[in-house]
Amino acid sequence: MKRLSAFNVTSLTLGFAFLYLPMILLVIYSFNESRLVTVWAGFSTKWYGELLRDEAFLDAAYVTLQVAVVSSTIATVLGTMAAYVLVNAGRFFGRTLFSGMIYAPLVMPEVITGLSLLLLFIGIGLDRGVLTIVLAHTTFSMCYVSVVVSSRLVSFDRSLEEAALDLGCNRLDAFRLVTLPIIAPAVISGWLLAFTLSLDDLVIASFVSGPSSTTLPIKIWSSVRLGVTPEINALSTLMIAIVTVGVITASLISKRGAARAQADAQAADRATG
Amino acid sequence: MRRFVLIAVPYAWLLALFLVPFLIVFKISLSDIALSIPPYTPTLKDGVAALIQGLDFENFWFLTTDDLYYKAYASSLKIALISTALTLLVGYPIAYGMARAPSEWRATLMMLVILPFWTSFLIRVYAWMGILSNEGLLNQLLIAMGLIDAPLTILNTNTAVYIGIVYTYLPFMILPIYATLERMDDSLIEAAEDLGCSRLSAFWLVTVPLSRSGIIAGSFLVFIPALGEFVIPSLLGGSGTLMIGKVLFEEFFNNRDWPVASAVAVILLLILIIPIVLFQRNQQKQAEAGA
Prior knowledge:
The structure holds two protein chains of two kinds.
Chain A: H1 6-29, H2 46-53, H3 55-88, H4 95-107, H5 110-123, H6 130-154, H7 158-166, H8 171-200, H9 203-208, H10 216-224, H11 230-272
Chain B: H1 2-29, H2 47-53, H3 58-65, H4 67-100, H5 103-118, H6 121-132, H7 137-144, H8 158-183, H9 187-194, H10 199-210, H11 212-227, H12 231-235, H13 244-253, H14 258-290
């Protein structure tokens, strides 16, 4: 087994301290009794109570979740289709443009995406609200989904799908019964990625949201600009906790899935060997 | 027929909600302010001649008359370049350490790098406000250690912006570099050392060139979004921090000058086309090498 050199241990320790300390401090100070965020005045959970009584935050959280669930679901369908097209469809008219439009939103500055979508919505007379945020989020997150899914599709053995077609499946059934179960982990992580991107988006949402559709990041943004407050620390802590639990659960599930797949493969080996 | 539907649906979506909006931005950047109050005239309904007649480069000309814009582009470029270099400097040793770690640790280390990426970007920037302010934890610590007497002003300066960009974009740098380093064959280093290279020169002559594609991908992933960054300079930067994303946002929401905001966006896009195309090429090359 390789051993890490002192240099590697130091760089990993410092690196992870840099990544995690700011968030850990934020969590610690969310339990601070004092309104002054920088002075420690004893342990207290009162800011969580104040936060949960704040209707504006709860409304914003509800809008954000609604938008995230709907947009990441549509984005997953569209993104998977796009990935399938990119990997399997071969040549078609405007293929370069198509793949360009898949990759460009990944790196496009958010201010430009937000501005351009707002001008489109105003141009076609669509009122700003939940619908416009959903459309905007679906558009950029479908591109992330299709990148995640296409990396899985590239390594997928197409002969399996062809075998299903030879055995009498139609294309849709072959996709549903053979391809989809195999690429499912990538589709699920694509959905999760789209979901978090939607929860996280501030810039694009501030362009395309209306007065009745304030999302959580917009709400946080407007309070944070006035300075650091204990309520925001409490809210941040809750969001960090939810994400941590979610990511750890997801990785445990996928680990168990991998272990089961391996056990199945071994059992199959024994049975055939 | 099915193949057609499969291609047409995502294609149409992207055309309608990605490409067409850009064309609108481009068109409005050429309109006059009075004409550009919604609904914008001239529109297609008035015929192509009227559409073209009303357009001119006045807004772009306006951008050259006020040196605010020129300075904002230049300082965005500078901030994005410096912070990309800093991110590389911080991220490379971490990626290197991960790739050298025992293989049973790697999955965990990888998850530790990805986890902050799942956490809200806004919250990660916000976390630094409490650390960097004059009464903040960093100053308290430095004073307690006796290193400084009076608090340093870090929040609301460019230094805070650099810290913010390095912090939030670090996973984008670490992951592609780690991916290339992990694929590397260790026996190459051993061969170089057997042939008389020192550890350091083996690193420079073998490891760094082999991780080039990761370094390039990571740098683009940091540089491109950093150039148009809006949240970090607004929260951590000061009034002296000029970044084009912030200027565009203010031009649009505070001054309500949509044609000028659109012109600012068009020029930002023109600046970004070269790195975006280079990035896409690099990705394609990597995908081909991986397949």
